[in-house]
Specification:
With 339 residues, the protein is mainly α. Helix content is 73%, strand content 0%. The model is unreliable at 5-11 (pLDDT under 50).
Length: 339
Amino acid sequence: MACSHGRAAAKPGLAVTGRAQIAARHRWRPVEALPWLLAIGAFFVVPDYLFLGTQVLILILFGLSLDLILGYAGIVTLGHAAYFGIGAYVAGMLSALLGWHEPLTGLLLAGLIAAAFGWLSGLLLLRYHGLALLMLTLAVGIMMMELANVLEAWTGGFDGLYGITPAPLLGRFENDLFGRNYYVYSLIVLFLVFVACRRLVHSPFGLVLQGVRDNERRMRALGCDVLRAKVAAFAIAAGIAGLAGGLFAQSNAFVTLDVLSFMRSGTVLVMLILGGVGRLYGAFVGATVYYLLEDQLAKFSPEFWQFGVGLVLVLVVLFARGGLLGLLEAAATPWRRSR
């Protein structure tokens, strides 16, 4: 999938340097342990809010899938909730309609089917750019939502799909009232997916995606199959979104048409912009800040809390182009230089 450049390939020194740079990107920095330590600490510090914590982890996973294509491949979409919804309905229907209650295999099937649909739709959608791509992705999301509404016998339509009863995890850990087991379950899934995404974006394929994002014409001139690279990234992102949707269905034990809505696509996009696009950890910051803003502003003004979120988003776009995470990195730069 990666591109090759004749002159660079002819010089072993350049190849060795390139491999060394890629290896350096793979190294974990101590600060990267912070979000994981906070997530583990939340399990003990706020045990009564772990159900909400599970929803935050699911949103982070969903945001991570969008960041993979938006931040690293430059693919803008307004219908990413379609793949989240597919994963949610697959996991839900396996349990509620087919009697397949084993959660791990149900989650994997949700991700695989969402990835397959992402690959098929990517072959069509990613031939277009700009406004045409935006409108097509939006149309796909709307069509999937209407399809789910029409297939009422399978999806429950407007009333939603209920009766989802996943079996205990590994035969031992049930979805308890406070959501402790599913919080750990979601955290493990998020960590495994994050490690895979981190390796992906720092691999030669990840560098190809960033090259496509920065200058697609130049990558074509270098001999890259740009469409193939973008479709592969799109399918991977759709699969991750499907995993997030599957976790949502299993942890909430119901699925409604909301999982396919434009509002959900818009929410994850706003969250990612708040945190920082193209940074992986931007999804962590954005999801946490978004949920805290929603909770506090809804208490202050239940009718107009979205105005507050919009105001914060405007301020971030105007004064922190790299999102809140970019703002933190800029603030820490003088300290790193002094050291």
